[in-house]
Amino acid sequence: MKKTTNEIRKSFLNFFKKKGHVVIPSSSLIPKNDSTLLFTNAGMNQFKEYFLDQKKIFHPRIVTAQNCLRTGGKHNDLDNVGYTKRHHTFFEMLGNFSFNDYFKEEAIKYAWELLTSKKWFNINPYKLWISVYEYDEETYKIWRNIIQVPAKNIIKIGDKKNSQYDSENFWQMGETGPCGPCTEIFYKYHSKKLDDHEDFFENKNENFIELWNIVFIEFNRISKTKILSLKNKSIDTGMGLERISAVLQNVHSNYKIDIFQNLIKKIYKFANVRNVNNISLKIIADHIRSCAFLIAENIIPSNEHRGYVLRRIIRRAIRHGNKIGIKNHFFYKLVPDLIEVMGDSAEILKGQENKIKEVIKKEEIQFCQTLEKGLKILNIEINKSENKKMSGETAFYLYDTLGFPIELTSDICREKNIDIDFKGYNIAKEKQKNKSIQKNKFYKNYNENINIHDTCKFEGYKKYKIKSLIKHIFIKNSSVQIIQKGQKGTIFLEKTSFYPESGGQIGDIGEIYYKKSRFIVKQTKKFGDTIGHFGEIISGVMIINKFVYAKIDQIYRKNVQLNHSATHLLHSALREILGKNVIQKGSLVSNTHLRFDFSFSDNINLLKIQKIENTVNTQIRKNTIIKIKNLTLEEAKKKNAIALFDHKYKSLVRVVFVKDFSIELCGGTHVKRTGDIGLFKIISQSNISSGIKRIEAVTGQKAIEYLHIQDKKIKDISAILKSNNSNIKEKIEKIIKKVTYLEIKISELQQKENLHQIKKLIKNVKYINKVKILINIFQNYDQKSLRSIIEQLKKELKIAIIIFINKNRDNFTIIIGITKNLTHYVTAAEIMDIFIQKTGGKGGGKSTIAEGGSINIEKLPNFLIDIQSWIDKKLKK
Ligand code: SER
């Protein structure tokens, strides 16, 4: 009996448990405390600090089944997914780790025992091939002399030309971090090859599958050119669970293992394809795994960072769904099946099924609104492009306006052998970025990898300008003594009036200056206990140990304060109107607006929104003095102060009071009286994930401007409609009715256009005796339309055999229509049998109509010749 993937995972963990390893759970897909990694991409990530001797491990032998994602950074497999037998976005990596305990020989012996022993995986040793780092004689000898692998099955792999340690057999976690030589175990699927070595390097049909990588962690890469030896030597191994399952389940593709087959079966039911090997099915089955696990880790589709990776994957899956004829929202429906097939690894998904489904569904609904339009534009551009190049501007328009990630556009273009003008795309993107930087001075390119340990006193609650001493200057990550006109960098002061971004409030902007030297501060952030001022020097120099003035932009700060105090009022108003189960989940307080995320499951109707606005504005009109006190945590609790989620507070806390209406722990800056806020207006309300709502609002002058804009919009619409404000709604309803009527008319015209097409086809009709024969090849034609055209043609031609071929990228379909009066001589089902025989395809049908398909496009020309002469003979008889 073949083992299921779930059983294989268990066996692996068990084997190493028996060898003295402690089983620990997979760590999060989001690496903790490691800004060099976007996602966990290997089993060893969670142990980075232990490998680097920075921390001491609780046990020297550990084993894990780690969830991994390879869709960005040094290890990125996204483009290969679906096109090869073995690549995935999400996969599980089985790994055993030794920390300064066993090393090369034992690690190799363990791997060999697990793979080949009858008691365990029982793989024929002759199927296994080994690669070693060319200069690692010790490892070669272990394989050759101790394990006794035949010399011809051991391949030595060296460095790439002129670059030491740049080799397939020298593993590195990323641009920096733990690394070392490795040895890999490959499984060879088919053995009838003349020259094995050549086959290994060429690897046609992916005959050799890399199963297990055993890394000897001996070094720490500090930079591109610097690599240091580590005091302790460790073992990090990684074996793809899906790959070993394919081998043990005797199938030559990861997509044929139990997990994927079950998912593919489900997707197949939604789709309009005949071929279960269709690439889109595999891509969707792969992508639901990464999406569900990312959402379970609280990543939400967005336009930035990890959220954008998730968005890209979901949208790619939806597009592939569309490609295989899935008409409705389907992707979210795969979640329950996924939970079922993932076995022990589904723990993290289980309690979150509804949330995962809702997040995906919302993204599906959103993207489907623009998908059709985007695909249409893409197709027009693809058909137009004579030089096989898609313009960068179109690609950017698709991205910016219709939400087509560039990778998705590129994926679609790749299918049609079209290149994207990436240069043009980047220029268009840059132009847009510059526009928005000018609009919003907030800088995004702040460098967060500065390594600094110091303190800085924040004096900005009371003072807008102070005299201070420059303690450190950084340009990018490097510490420097001096920074000069035109250079960007980060300045650290002894004390500052600049509020560093925290608790949702954005950091201050302003300037640091003395005499004629001026450094414009564009962003302020915390670095441990100190504060970094990021910006650009526009005149003179800034030098370490020099006294300077730090002066914030007061207008900017005041606008931020309006929004921060309004956020506290909003928080209390929400709890008053929606109930005490409203819990803050996040917030952003900027100079332009405020954003508040909170837990609440029900809908919030307009009436409630108005009540919330009224409550906040009533508090504003009361013009209450805002008081700030430092209390002990106990005292604050007694006053029922609201504390922030997930926060560790010191014993003395800062509490912001708006009388009894709002009492909240907060380190941010606030207005003196509520009346300073002027006006509060909610501008949007949305669901950001299951049970989490988001409210965005504006205050003060911005609120007035917002109302002006709304007012003008209504007036403009009234003018366009030639109506007045009072009957504008009725006027729009009338127009909608008219548009619906026109759409019906257009569809009638379209049918006429179809008839026109039919007339064109009739001209290609040939005769054999009195029978009309029509064979036509279409490219990517809508299958449904073909069916209806065939039926209409049968009526038109009266005695006819019609064969339509519809070519797609990697397969083609066939529809055969035969008029009833001919079925004594020839049937559609008969022709279908010949089709199946000659093309290796599939299909079926009745005497008058049959449908099928095949992936063997190369067999099409011969089939067409054969079928014509077959019909010829049959009818002449
Ligand atoms: N870190 C190595 C890899 O990812 C072995 O686990 O291949």
Helix and strand topology:
Blueprint: H1 5-18, E1 22-23, H2 48-51, E2 61-69, E3 71-72, E4 75-76, E5 90-99, H3 104-116, E6 128-133, H4 137-146, E7 154-157, E8 170-172, E9 177-188, H5 196-202, E10 208-221, E11 227-240, H6 241-248, H7 258-270, H8 279-296, H9 305-323, H10 335-341, H11 347-350, H12 353-384, E12 389-390, H13 392-400, H14 406-415, E13 419-420, H15 422-439, E14 457-458, E15 465-475, E16 478-480, E17 482-484, E18 488-493, E19 495-496, E20 510-514, E21 517-527, E22 530-539, E23 541-543, E24 547-552, H16 554-578, E25 583-589, E26 594-599, H17 606-622, E27 627-632, H18 633-638, E28 652-658, E29 662-665, E30 680-689, E31 692-699, H19 700-721, H20 728-762, E32 766-768, E33 771-779, H21 783-797, E34 800-807, E35 812-818, H22 828-839, E36 842-845, E37 849-854, H23 860-876
Parallel strand pairs: 1-2, 6-7, 12-13, 14-19, 33-34
Antiparallel strand pairs: 2-5, 3-4, 5-11, 6-9, 8-9, 9-10, 10-11, 15-16, 15-18, 15-24, 17-23, 18-22, 20-21, 20-24, 21-22, 25-26, 26-31, 27-28, 28-29, 30-31, 32-33, 34-35, 35-37, 36-37
Helix pairs in contact: 7-8, 8-9, 8-12, 9-12, 13-15, 16-17, 20-21, 22-23
In short, what is this structure?
The protein contains 23 helices and 37 strands.
| Total individual domains | 5
- Radius of gyration, in Å, reads 33 Å
Query: Which strand-content bin applies to the residues?
Result: 25-35%
Percent of residues in helices comes to 25-40%
Q: Helical segment tally?
A: 23
CATH superfamily of the largest domain: Bira Bifunctional Protein, Domain 2
The CATH architecture designation of the largest domain is 2-Layer Sandwich
Shape: globular
CATH domain topology of the largest domain: BirA Bifunctional Protein, domain 2
Q: Which small-molecule ligands are present, each listed once?
A: serine
The residue ranges in which pLDDT falls below 50 over 5 or more consecutive positions are 436-445
